Amino acid sequence: MIRKAEAKDIPAVLKLVNFWSKKSRLLQVTKRELRKRLGLSWIWEDKKEVVGYISLLVYRKELAEIRSLCIKVKYQRRGIGTKLLQTALLEAKKRRITTVLTITKVLGFYSLQKFQSKLAGKRALLLDPRRFKIKKRL
To answer: pTM surpassing 0.70?
Structure first.
């Protein structure tokens, strides 16, 4: 069952997110960060156990990001991720957000959910600053 994340969920969510961050699937988070996200975070709970999590980070009126979508391994492939994502997208729609992005290594899942690498002619551009070379001193 999906519900809004609460402060009491933070330890379980932290453990779940950081499990996936150790596998290089998500960025690591802190308790403080999770606390800040509480208003726009949801969990999937099964028998009082947190088995899935998602949050929506709103940057401005028209732009938000899906953050930390993760499901415990034994609960995957049951539609939980899709339902959590739909919940976050419904909230974005209520807020009239026009673009929702995600940064992910799990392209297949997001492609199935109609995420695209470009939107209305716009593309995301990324740069690894470790590879950035300055030709002249500024």
So the answer is: yes
